[in-house]
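Reviewer comment 2.1 asked that we show a complete input and output for one of the modelled complexes. We chose the adenosine-5'-diphosphate case, as it is the one discussed in the main text.
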Amino acid sequence: MNKKTLQDLDVNGKKVFCRVDFNVPMKNGEVTDDTRIRAALPTIEHLLEKGAVVILASHLGRPKGEVIEELRLDPVAERLSDLLGKEVVKTDTVYGKEVNEALSQVSNGDVVLIENVRFDPGEEKNDPSLIQAFADMADLYINDAFGTAHRAHASTTGVAEKLPAATGFLMEKEIEVLGKALENPDRPFTAIIGGAKVKDKINVIDHLLDKVDNLIIGGGLAYTFVKAQGYEIGKSLLEEDKIELAKDFMQKAQDKGVRFVMPEDVVVADDFSEEANTKIVDIEEIPADWEALDIGPATREKYNQIVKDSKLVIWNGPMGVFEYNAFAGGTRAVAESLAGTEGYTVIGGGDSAAAVEKLGFADDMDHVSTGGGASLEFMEGKVLPGVKALDDK
Ligand SMILES: Nc1ncnc2c1ncn2[C@@H]1O[C@H](COP(=O)(O)OP(=O)(O)O)[C@@H](O)[C@H]1O
Ligand SMILES: O=C(OP(=O)(O)O)[C@H](O)COP(=O)(O)O
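Response of the prediction step:
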């Protein structure tokens, strides 16, 4: 990467404005998964060890420029404080008098977490006055928020133009791992794409067809492709206006010699619920009133073989409705295959990462990305604005 990194900056005695992605799942005012907070610790700890004042900034949820009490960052500050083993000064505002006072009272090696930056309408608008307020707080800027690197906001791009700006360690690692995987892949290179967001993922599929040896399709988005092959899919998820594109992709795969791998059998249900009646059917036999909610056992075995023979596997999106036990088997099987393969494994996407975490396989993967949308846009070949805005080496 040709961008400056944390190692290139002398941070001793400096105030460092550090954008992190602490957009973590919460329930009843408690952080339920602190993966993203832990992922930012190497950067924060490095800054503290080197004697910087660390000013952390993050969004949480989508408050759209208003103060939403449930989206305050206090529970995050508490968890961060536990993880760091030191006090984190949390302000109730994003900038202004309270923040300035807090900053005048802290010393080198202290941490301040300002309030949810999306409480200010200027954040998402990349507003000049908010950018200036951020720049006035600090001497240097670090972006370690890979999960938000696809957003051009005041705290992710605007302020980077105003201060010496570099990547944090998490950002650096994400870009390096995902970049290396895509630029110079070990082969056979297999991508497994699942989930439900057909529209979001269709461009990634197009881009991946230029890179991979095997493209495996699963999850809800498989059925638009199954339909494109001419099979009936009952009530399964369908993006009608993407059928033609799905046909184009299958043709492109054939032209390029990419193996395009689709489900052979599926678990169908007579209702979208945990209690639904279910059965396993061949792909060409999905009953009209049923919907396919998971890949079947023959498909799992086929995917397993391909994963086993791959040197590099990228996985984005669950294979079925894994939130219900009855339809979690396909996702579990693929997670197990990735956990067991000798090839290098990369997981991207919020739900895939959550599934791998929930099923207990996170530690067996080589890289679990902290970015969902960000990793997808990266894989599409886009330059992420949060990275572009940083200083070149
Ligand atoms: N066959 C299916 N039918 C309907 N929804 C599905 C199916 N398979 C997976 N899903 C749903 O896809 C969702 C995840 O999709 P998506 O957001 O695209 O994944 P990710 O966040 O990993 O990128 C999950 O909530 C899951 O229940
Ligand atoms: O959680 C995030 O995105 P993700 O669910 O795609 O990983 C990021 O924090 C970005 O949040 P946003 O999609 O509200 O800009």
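Residues 21, 23, 62, 147-148, 151, 350, 371-373 surround 1,3-bisphosphoglyceric acid (ligand 2) (CB under 6 Å). We note this here for comparison with the apo prediction described in Section 3.2.
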